């Protein structure tokens, strides 16, 4: 069964009132509650994955962009978004993926950065547009004790979007959300 | 061999190269020299699988005939693969693996930089996305080449042996086919005429820091990956990669 069909069934079942263009704000609220499956404290809106929410041809259309080309969470994110929208009554919602413009960590909201830090992941430092092949390593702060005395262990961590660091003061290992 | 139009052939070259390189990286699962290295190898592999899917999706749309990225990956025989010879070579030890990765990254980086300026918007979008990831790949692989080359007597010797084993396949990084030249001149895929010199410059620079000697330019020989004439290793790799879809067509989870 395809996600759209599930939506139809639920809608018939609950006799939901059809949503209209006036409900765009509600859709935004719903999306702000859809969490990233790998980092369940930040929403897809916080991460800048949701690019555009519009009303088109009588239904809701959500434009999303993948973080990394091979991020295995992309499909789960698309499904969770659809599911949340359907449950909120947007039964015909379409979710469209687009690569261009390419996702950048610069799109992570300030609130998203605070949540990452509270979760124990150091948020990206600086602007992605200034990073290049030869640029100097960023000054990463330990999310646990706040020390700047940290060391890169590997630029590749537990997921594609994170690097592995260790704090030289509190000695804890931690994840750093890479700046891309 | 069936030849598609120039752009489709080029998309297959990009997609197949990323795919085969990713498959080789995944062979390290469970046996990398350190946990952090295993994570890094798999991360790079994952990025490349994603990039391969983006290129092959586009190629499949152009080919039509009911193809999608999966059918191109799992249902074509080796004579239909357009990947670089370098990426299909066996992993060998860690030195061979990292040198292969470095050669590939040093090619992808200038290639994607140019492709990101392509007139074809889809090519530009995939390249722009991929380039962000490849920047990380290249930084890591070039650091490893430097560390191993300029490391211990043992690691240096292993890098020398790795160069010996792989260099013969490097001619593909510095030559363009006439089809690619025409795509490049029309700017359909951006001007890629400088990729060869940038690849060579990157290799020269990293090898110098790694105290390794750059061999004389490799000469083309009878293998020609653009025509599907591969080394004997690709068939074995595909046999493993395609097993499930061959044995249980359209299996999914």
UniProtKB/TrEMBL annotation, chain A:
Gene3D superfamilies: Fe-S cluster assembly (FSCA) (3.30.300.130). It holds the Pfam family FeS_assembly_P. SUPFAM superfamilies: Fe-S cluster assembly (FSCA) domain-like. Residues 128-178 form the PaaD zinc beta ribbon domain. Residues 28-86 form the MIP18 family-like domain. It comes from the Bacteria. This is Phenylacetate-CoA oxygenase subunit PaaJ. It comes from Marinomonas vulgaris. The lineage of its organism: Bacteria, Pseudomonadati, Pseudomonadota, Gammaproteobacteria, Oceanospirillales.
Automatic annotation (TrEMBL), chain B:
Keywords: Oxidoreductase. GO terms for molecular function: phenylacetyl-CoA 1,2-epoxidase activity. InterPro entries: Aromatic_CoA_ox/epox, Ferritin-like, Ferritin-like_SF, PaaA_PaaC, PaaC. It holds the Pfam family PaaA_PaaC. It is an enzyme of class 1 (oxidoreductase). Its EC number is 1.14.13.149. It comes from the Bacteria. PANTHER family: 1,2-PHENYLACETYL-COA EPOXIDASE, SUBUNIT C, PHENYLACETIC ACID DEGRADATION PROTEIN PAA. This is Phenylacetate-CoA oxygenase subunit PaaC. The gene is paaC.
């Amino acid at each position: 069964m395809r996600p759209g069909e599930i939506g139809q069934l639920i809608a018939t079942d609950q006799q939901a009132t059809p949503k209209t263009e006036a409900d765009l704000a509600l859709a935004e609220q719903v999306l702000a509650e859809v969490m990233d499956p790998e980092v369940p404290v930040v929403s897809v809106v916080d991460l800048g994955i949701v690019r555009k929410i519009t009303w088109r041809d009588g239904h809701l259309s959500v434009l999303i962009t993948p973080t990394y080309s091979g991020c295995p969470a992309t499909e789960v994110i698309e499904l969770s978004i659809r599911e949340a929208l359907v449950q909120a009554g947007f039964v015909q919602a379409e979710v469209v993926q687009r690569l261009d413009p390419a996702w950048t960590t610069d799109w992570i909201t300030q609130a998203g950065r605070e949540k990452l830090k509270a979760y124990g992941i150091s948020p990206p430092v600086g602007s992605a547009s200034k990073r290049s092949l030869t640029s100097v390593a960023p000054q990463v702060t330990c999310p646990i004790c706040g020390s700047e005395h940290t060391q890169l262990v590997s630029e590749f961590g537990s997921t594609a979007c994170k690097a592995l660091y260790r704090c030289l003061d509190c000695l804890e290992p931690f994840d750093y959300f890479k700046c891309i | 061999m069936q030849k598609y139009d120039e752009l489709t052939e080029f998309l297959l070259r990009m997609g197949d190269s990323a795919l085969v390189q990713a498959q080789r990286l995944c062979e390290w699962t469970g046996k990398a020299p350190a946990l952090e290295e295993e994570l890094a190898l798999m991360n790079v592999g994952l990025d490349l699988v994603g990039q391969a899917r983006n290129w092959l999706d586009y190629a499949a749309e152009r080919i039509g005939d009911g193809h999608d990225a999966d059918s191109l990956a799992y249902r074509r025989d080796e004579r239909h693969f357009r990947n670089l010879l370098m990426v299909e070579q066996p992993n060998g030890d860690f030195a061979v693996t990292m040198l292969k990765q470095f050669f590939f990254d040093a090619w992808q980086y200038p290639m994607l930089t140019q492709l990101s300026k392509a007139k074809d918007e889809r090519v530009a979008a995939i390249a722009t996305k991929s380039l962000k990831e490849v920047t990380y790949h290249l930084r890591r692989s070039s650091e490893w080449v430097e560390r191993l080359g300029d490391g211990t007597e043992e690691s240096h010797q292993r890098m020398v042996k790795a160069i010996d084993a792989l260099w013969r396949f490097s001619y593909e990084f510095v030559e363009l086919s006439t089809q690619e030249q025409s795509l490049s001149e029309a700017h359909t895929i951006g001007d890629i005429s400088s990729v060869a010199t940038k690849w060579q410059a990157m290799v020269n620079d990293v090898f110098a820091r790694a105290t390794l000697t750059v061999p004389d330019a490799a000469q083309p020989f009878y293998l020609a990956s653009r025509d599907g004439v591969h080394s004997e290793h690709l068939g074995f790799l595909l046999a493993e990669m395609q097993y499930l879809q061959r044995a249980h067509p359209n299996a999914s989870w």
